[in-house]
Hints:
Elements: E1 3-7, H1 10-20, E2 24-30, E3 36-42, H2 50-64, E4 69-74, E5 77-82
Antiparallel strand pairs: 1-3, 1-4, 2-3, 4-5
Helix pairs in contact: 1-2
Amino acid sequence: MPVEITAPDRESASALLGDAVSHFHVELVETAGSATIVRLRPTSTVPAGWVFELLALVERWLVAHGLEVANVHHGSRSYVITAPHSDVQREGNPGPAAAA
Length: 100
């Protein structure tokens, strides 16, 4: 069953395709709107943990293209993957002290 990622435009979709081709069978699916779907299927040589590779791939793609979120579909399920932010404070970890 393929995983489909909605890209906001053809340029970022093509970049995701280029990054994914070494681990996945990839195709671009045009939609009626401006968004493009990138459809991924793991290759037979991908290790059992291919989902982790997929998540890392999507996070790298979000950061590289300045995107905040990616909508990912697998079967009847939908997921939103959010770009990692280096300035996010972990719970219990105080932020930078204010200058006095």
